Amino acid sequence: MTGRARLVALDVDGTLMSYDGVISPEVHEAVRALVDSGVHVVLATGRSVAGMMPVAARLGLTDGWAVCSNGAVTVRLDPELDDGYELVEVITFDPGPALRALAAEVPDALIAVERLGVGFLVSAHFPLGELNGEFTVASFEELVAAPATRVVLRSPGSTPEEFHEIVERVGLHEVSYSVGWSAWLDLTPGGVSKASALEDVRRRLGVEPFATAAVGDGGNDTEMLRWAARGVAMGHAQDSVRAAADEVTGTIEDDGVLSVLRSLLPR
Q1: 169-207 pLDDT, tens per residue?
Q2: pTM to 2 decimal places
Q3: Looking at residue 218, which CATH number applies to its domain?
Q4: Distance CA 54, CA 104 (A)
Q5: In a domain, 1, yes or no
Q6: For residue 121, what is the domain's CATH number?
Q7: How many Å apart are CA 185 and CA 152, to the nearest integer?
Q8: Are 51 and 13 in contact (CB under 8 A)?
Q9: Which of 136, 186, 197, 224 is least surrounded by CB atoms within 10 angstroms?
Q10: Is the residue at 40 inside a domain?
Q11: Do 77 and 198 belong to one domain?
């Protein structure tokens, strides 16, 4: 598969970017080299559009495609447009049933409901740097009042293992979900993932399934790594994520994505 990929899907946080917001010059250069060689580089992130766009700008990705909100939002980047992008696909769900069930289990959890292109409605302020965009504090009834693309629950006093147990107990059947490194739960519309959105992008671009690659590190990357012909997990990823990949590279601390990006350059 080396050197044959025409569509490369890249997670952002923990893959391209360190947890303190750094993208190394070498990674930036490798991404640009792929783009210049004609490869479709697609950011595939849990971030909202508002959180993705500054990353795309830093990487010089001003046209092409991006998958946001764990697959619920797909955009086409275009520097000629006022906002630099157009919404191509937006999939929403009713967050009420899931949030009411989860709030009963974790009443002190922080809740954030995505406001497309703007930021989030939040039950209270999240720790600094954990969300992107503008924030408006709202009541619980306001949080569940409208269809949403993505909802986040954050419980600083809980563990990821406790969140997994809560999800199993509640039974979230109408939504897709992933539990993060901390007690962080992402909810998206049922059946939606980075993989489902990337499959739509692949078809739009006319790329063959064998010419796809993806790199990621989180639970929300598992389906994407299985979807790609070459799925690469970061070295610090959890065992379940590594098991979904075809191979494992280095960690974010040693720029593990860099060797993968370089190997994908056409020979």
Answers
A1: 888 767 877 777 667 888 999 999 999 999 999 999 999
A2: 0.92
A3: 3.40.50.1000
A4: 36
A5: no
A6: 3.30.1240.10
A7: 6
A8: no
A9: 136
A10: yes
A11: yes
